[in-house]
Amino acid sequence: MEVVKQISELKKVLKPLRGHSKSVSLVPTMGALHQGHIHLVKQARHESDLVVVSIFVNPIQFNNPSDLAQYPRTLSADLKLLEDAGVDLVFVPENSEMYPSEVQVAFRFGALEEVLEGAFRPGHFNGVAIVVSKLFHIIQPDLAYFGQKDLQQVSVIRRLVKDLQFDLQVRVVPTVRETDGLALSSRNLRLSPEQRLQALSLYKCLESAKSELLKGNAWFDTKKQLEGGFDHSKELRLEYLELVDLDDFRPAEKRKPELKQGICIAAYVGEVRLIDNIILD
Ligand code: PAF
Fold it and tell me: Does the N-terminal or the C-terminal CB of the chain have fewer CB atoms within 10 Å?
């Protein structure tokens, strides 16, 4: 496994391989890797000749400086996991390599960025779109892998690929959960054992919401009842719980079996902001 820090170096390694018609996949990450990331890598390994993983804590997608400062960084453990998973190339750029000057271009995603994560984290999707576009330009992958846990991000990426006609396929890999249901997330590393238990409320809430909807109960009542279950204390603070239509992420008022819908949640457990979602089949 080769680890490169510079764009020029990365391009030099990739060029001859592309000449031999090798298919290239990219798994973009911010490090602090867990089995969720490894699932993405394994699928990429299965579907392409060359697997590239990027590890870059992208400063411009954080709207909260303390979230950026406290984002877990575990590079040597990450590299070990990637080596064991059979990755070919890891791109670990410094900030100055990705942002030699302040970025002036900006992306707008219309209604998609005005709700849920877009509303609670202003500028977040612009930052994601900029870094992902840069990675696509630099690496020119045939396939790019993202986790379903960041469901709204997946829609943003699909829009980006469509509007800018990137010549690649987006693959979405289901959320990996602990046996008790907690979605794997790099931010879980910041939870104390008690907070880890409280964090389970997100998944439990999604499961209850789904089961109430599938029983035919109204979303308005279900949401109200479940929101009441959060104590809104400092330790477990619900930010949103929404039923959404997956084509535009607009909050929906009721279950529409003819549409693809999902339930999305964001909550703070102490200082740690977690998100999760569940798709209604
Ligand atoms: O999902 C993430 O980890 C990040 O948003 C991504 C896609 C690597 C861009 O920084």
Answer: C
